[in-house]
Amino acid sequence: MKIEQIIKAIQSNKINITLHAREEAKNDFLLLDEIFYSTRHGKIIENYPTDKPYPSCLIYGESPAGNPIHSVWAYDSINKIAILITVYRPNPNLWKNWKKRK
Questions:
Q1: 46 pLDDT more than 90
Q2: Nearest to 100 by CA among 72, 62, 70, 64
Q3: pTM exceeds cut of 0.90
Q4: What is the structure's pLDDT at 71?
């Protein structure tokens, strides 16, 4: 999966946000604009090519204020839709430089 596909879907407003992602964003006080910004300026740090029904990936990015954000996106290549699976503020006890699991 390429991050450019997800970014293009975001820019085209071809996005599906799961209920789980909405709940996690609310719990971590994350706004959709912050999530989209962090994705557009982020990078894929883990790929999950065998996820079903669509391959997915973990993206690390930062909010406009510079706060780290992790988001998991799937991509429906037939309909060209990005699906936000979950999103969270990474725990510093679990991540090294926000990009590698400890």
A1: yes
A2: 70
A3: yes
A4: 98
| 8 A C-beta contact, residue 86 and residue 80 | no
| Contacts of residue 66, Cβ cutoff 8 Å, sequence gap at least 6 | none
- DSSP code of residue 90: P
Total domains in the chain come to 1
DSSP per-residue codes, 36-88: HHHHHT-EEEEEETT-SSS-EEEEEEE-TTS-EEEEEEEEETTTTEEEEEEEE
30-36: long-range contacts (C-beta < 8 A, 24 or more apart)?
30/63, 30/69, 30/87, 30/88, 30/89, 34/63, 34/64, 34/67, 34/69, 35/69, 35/71, 35/84, 35/87, 36/10
> Range of 78's domain?
3-90
Instruction: Check whether the bond before 64 is cis (ω within 30° of 0).
Output: no
| Residue 97 forms part of a structural domain | no
